[in-house]
Write the structure tokens for this entry.
Amino acid sequence: MRRRGYTLLELLTSIAALVILLGLMVSLARRVRAQSAEAITKGLLVKLDRLVAEYQTRNRRLPDVTPFILDTEHHPDELVLQQRAVENNRQLLRALRTQVDLDGGELANLPEDIYNGVNLRDAWGDPIVFLPHYHPDIGTPPGGQYFFVSAGPDGRYLTRADNLYSYENPALEPDTDSPRDEADMPGK
């Protein structure tokens, strides 16, 4: 009896099938990672929204932070926005820290690349920005309420298609008794 081995055609077919499977697995892994990053960032937006609502309830005002975009400024340079985002984020966390234990509360157990005690970053490494009111270049929430914005996967704040906004999350819809309601905001 003659023993038959793999032919070259069978070997190449097996290798091609493995390459296709590997490609599908890599694509799926990228998609799962992107969805995970988005879910982490949306969770941070929810936490920040709760913290600012608590701050507003205690102080009857919003935290005082340097504006991310000046009201008269349209389409500022992205590098300038990145620098302002860092400062905005730091000032917001300093203001919240005066009212709330961030390290032992809402922001406890976050990885250091997301929250290091000074900055709070989205899952892509960019600062999450606090906006006390809408700006047409960044986002327009219903009712002119405050909101948070993440630059998204591309790291650019002016590309609205991939940015994440706190007002887009259904868990953040204001109710009539919420301090987030525009009518309850002093000075509005």
Remarks:
- DSSP finds two helices and three strands in the chain.
- Helices lie at 8-59, 78-97.
- The chain has one domain: 38-184.
- The beta strands are 129-131, 147-150, 164-165.
